[in-house]
Amino acid sequence: MKKSADAEYDFLDFWEANQKFFAMKQGTTENLMHFKERFLRQAEVLQDLYGVAWFRNFAVKTKAYAAIASTDTTAKDKFKDDIFEAVLATGFLCNCD
Question: Are 21 and 47 in contact (CB under 8 A)?
């Protein structure tokens, strides 16, 4: 699909940002630091699209969150605060050479 310069396509932009992020791989001649910079730039786009609340809600649905003692609210809050970085670290490790 071609985009017109005179309109905005929020749903298409959202779809393309997700596709680009999940398809990212380190190039065969790309050094790790360059890939990291490229990866983090695209991650910022996703965080802007989803919003912090989406990632915090995702955190609550994970097995790791469920394993934290229900009385340990400090650990639960820290887990929710750190979820975006955990998701990024996992994706980065999966997609680099």
Answer: no
pLDDT digits (tens, 9 = 90+) for 29-50: 999 999 999 999 999 999 999 9
Question: In angstroms, rounded to a whole number, what is the distance separating the alpha carbons of residues 58 and 81?
Answer: 11
Q: In the predicted model, is pLDDT for residue 80 greater than 90? A: yes
3-state helix, strand, coil split of the chain in percent (to 5) is 70, 0, 30
Structure tokens at 82: 């750190």
Residue type, 8: E
Q: What is the pTM of this model?
A: 0.75
Is the separation of the CB atoms in 39 and 91 below 8 Å? Answer: yes
CA gap 65, 33 in Å, rounded: 31
Tokens of 3: 């985009």
Distance of CA 65 to the CA centre of its chain: 18
